[in-house]
Amino acid sequence: MTTQSITKYAKVFSLSIMVAFVSCKEDKVETKDTSMTTNNLLLQEWTGPYGGTPAFDKMKVEDIKEAVEKGMELNLAEIDAIANSTEAPTFENTIVAMERSGAELDRVFSYYGILSSNMSSPEFRAIQKELVPKLSEFSSKINQNEKLFQRIKAVYDASQKTPLEADQQRVVDLTYNSFAMNGAELDADKKARYAAINKELSTLYNKFGDNVLHDEENYVTYLTKDQLGGLAEGYIKSAAKIATDKGQDGKYAVTNTRSSMDPFLTYSTERELRKQVWSNYYSRGDNGDAYDNNQIIADILKLRRERVELLGHKNYAEWRLQDRMAKTPENAMALMETVWPAAIARVSEEVADMQAVADANGDNITIEPWDYRYYAEKVRKAKYDLDSDEVKQYLQLDKLTDAMFYVAGRLFNYNFTPVPEGSVPVFHEDVNVWEVTDKDSGEHIGLWYLDPYARQGKRSGAWATTYRSHTTFDGKQTVLASNNSNFVKPAPGEALLVSWDDATTFFHEFGHALHFFSSNVKYPTLNGGVRDYTEFQSQLLERWLSTDEVINQFLVHYKTGEVIPQELVAKIKKAATFNQGFGTTEYLASAIMDMKFHLADPANIDVDKFERETLAELKMPKELPMRHRTPHFGHVFSGEGYATAYYGYMWADVLTADAAEAFTEAPGGFYDKEMADKLVKYLFAPRNSIDPAEAYRLFRGSDAKVEALMRDRGFPVTK
How far is it, in rounded angstroms, from Cα 462 to Cα 505? Predict the structure, then answer.
C-alpha cells in the first residue's frame, strides 16, 4: 500500500484521513508575500546533508496546528496570485506556477503524516480532529476557484489545438480532468454543497480511523503460561515483553493487529482463545459502542452518492473509475466475477482437507473461521511436508533487507549504505536510514527510511510513502522514501523471524520505494499514479523473493547460518499455490463488497445487513471472513484512496502474473538484463508521465491476459 497516488491536484492525503489538496513542491512562486513567513519549525526549509531532511527529532505535536494553518494560508496566497494574474494564461504562468506552489505545506505534511500514522497520540488526534474540516475547506477553495479553473481550462483548450510536449500535455490533461472531476464546472449553489459534503466527509473519515485505532489499542488478549501451546519461542518472548510493557508482568499479550493475530491463529492449540483473538480482530469498529463504525459508513455512502450526483453521475463507482485502468465498474466487476467461482471452489477443497485432518485427529469439531489458519497449517504439513514455522527459521528481517538491496542492485543498479548514526534525524529510535546511490557512478539518489516495528499509536498494516519525491523540475532532488511495517518487536538479542507471507509483503512495500527512487519525471504531478496500476510494480517485485539468487544467499538459519536446504525450498515452491482459495477469496470478498456498497442505493442502508446479505448472495464460504470487514475497512472508509478501487490489487495482479511470465520466458530469467532494463524504463521510471496501458504494452508488446493470473494461482483456465 502506498500513500502516494492519483495526481497532485487531487492528491490524496491518506494517513488517518484523506483530503485532496493541490501540489505542494519545494519551489516558490515569485509573487509570494514574504511577510507571511513564520518561525514554526515544521514550515522551515530542511537543512543538513542529502539536500536537507525533515527535523523529525525536533517536531512537537503542539506545533502542528499553527504549521498546517499557516501552510494553507501561504499556499492559498500563491494560488490566488496565479488565479488573479493579469497575464494571458499559459502553461508556464499557470500550470508550472501551480507545480511550484506549496513548499511550506508540503514540508508540514511530512511531519503530519508521521504524527498521524507512525506516532499518533491522544493529543495529536484532538488537533487532527480540529484540522480535518479546515483541510477540507482548504481543498475546496482551490478546486472551486473559478478564476484558477478558467486559466487551467484556457491552457487545456489551447493544447487541444496545438499540443504541447508530451510530458507537458500529460500534466495539463491530468490537472484539467482532476479539477473537472472535483466540481470545478458546477454552478455556485452546487459548488457550495459539494464543498460542504467534502467537509462533512473529512470529519467522518477521521472518526472512522480513530475508532478502528481505538479497538486495535484496547482489545488485548492476555495469556497465562499454561495457554502457550503451539506458539513459537520467539513469539512467546515477544508477547511477554509486550505484556510487561503494558503493566501485565508475567503474562503474554496478543495484540489486536494482524502481525500478532495471524501467527497466534496459525499455531495456538487453544481453540477458545483462537476464537477470542479472531473475534477481537474481525469485530474492530463493530462492537455496538461509542466506537462503532456502522452508522458512519452509512453516512459516508449517502454523502458520496449525493456528491457525485451533483456532477451528473449515477453512483460513486462510475465517477471514481473514469480515470482508472478499468474505466468502468462493469469492467472491474467482470474481472472479479471471472476469478470468484474458482476461488470459492478452491476454498471448498481446502476446507474438506482441513476437516479430514481434524476428523483424523479426533478433534470432534467443524471448521470455523478461527480454525482455518490452524488446520491449513496442518494440511500444509501433511500435503507438502512443509512446516511454516520451520521456514521462518530462515526468514530473518535483517537478511531479507539485504536481499531487497541485492535485488535493487541487480535490477536498478542501486547501492544501499547505512548513513552515519545521528547524521539524519529520525522520529523514533527504531527507525534506520540508508543512502541510495548508483552502483557505477556513485551518484546520490536518495535516502530510504525503515520503520519496522508495531508500537502504540502506529496504524496497523504496512505501507510506503515519500517525504520528498523526485523531479527534474529545477534540478534533480534527493528522494526521501520510507517503508513502514508492524512486525512484533523481538525480545532483546533475539532475531526477528517472519512468515513467508510477511516476507512477501516486505518485498511488496519495498517495490513502492523503488518506484519512488527510479522516477524520472520533470513535473511533480507526474509522480502520481493510477490506483489500479501503482500496485502492479510492487506486486511484481514480490516475485524476486523466491528466486534462487535470493534463496541461496539470504535465506539462512538464524542460529546456524546454514543456507535453507534445497529440499525445503522445493517444498516451498511446490506449495506455491497452496491456500490460494483462502487468500483469493478473503481479498475478493472485500473488493466485491467495496464495489457493491457504492453501486447500491444508500438511502436507509443497513450496513451490517447489507454486508451479510451480499456475502450470502455471493455464496461466501462460512469458514472464512472478508480480509477487511466493512466496519474496519480503512482503505475504503477512512478516506477515498481505495474507495471502489480495492479491486485494483487484482487488476494489478493480472499485470503482475503476465509480466512474471515475461521474465520466466527470458534467457536470463528474473535477472535478465534486457528485461530488467525494460522494467525500469517502461514500468518504473515513467510514473504517470504516460498512459499505464501504453506503458505496459511498451514493456510486454501486448496487453496483459487474465489467463496468466489463473495459471499463477493454480486455478483452471477456461477458454
Answer: 8
